[in-house]
Amino acid sequence: MSREIRITPSILNADFSRLQEEISKIASVSDLLHLDVMDNVFVPNFTFDFDSASKIIKESILEVDAHLMVADVDQIAPTYAEAGCASVTIHAEATKDISATLRAIRKIGARSGLALKPTTQIEDYVDFIDDVDMFLIMTVEPGFGGQKFMVDMMSKVSRTRAIIGSRPIWLQVDGGISTETIEIAADAGADTFVAGSAVFNASDPSAMVASLRELASKS
Ligand code: DX5
Ligand code: ZN
Known about the structure:
Blueprint: E1 6-9, H1 19-26, E2 33-38, H2 50-59, E3 64-69, H3 73-82, E4 87-91, H4 98-108, E5 111-116, E6 134-138, H5 154-164, E7 170-174, H6 182-188, E8 192-195, H7 197-200, H8 205-217
Parallel strand pairs: 1-8, 2-3, 3-4, 4-5, 5-6, 6-7, 7-8
D-xylitol-5-phosphate binds near residues 10, 140 and 143.
């Protein structure tokens, strides 16, 4: 079965001092821009506060897929939808009210995403499936770019694909995606791929996005 493939480059490893230029390198070949928001509480790293993130969201020529790695996500997530993100993903481990927050994101008009850290099991979240537009299975511990792809997450990706069934829910993987690993993740059932260092450390980021898409489309 061939499914629609989406490549969502992460700017975590891009040059923040000339971000628009970095985004313009991949805009015409990418589906969404993956924006990693880290608060130094939920993860041991900090990227942007809301003001800096909103500026990026407003100025980006690509629509934004926000990945919120923040502790007080129930308060913060709707503000990212209001700022104009196309998709807002919350972590199951951070939210205190999954349904209410996912519904709030949707009500504002963004897609609702639910992310799971490597030790969190998909089976514990099946009851929330009707509020979810995208599952994000982390293939590294969240916090940093450039980590090694956790191949042992592929069973969780396959199980999530089976749980999704015929629902129009996207299945995203994030962490260590490269030309070496993307086919493995696509074979397990992923259709939406975050790639940070593979894209922005490449000599030709746009060609890298095209190669990743071609490899994922083979599965
Ligand atoms: C890690 C972030 C990722 C990161 C991926 O916590 O969620 O989106 O940017 O970077 P790579 O592709 O280098 O693993
Ligand atoms: Zn991410």
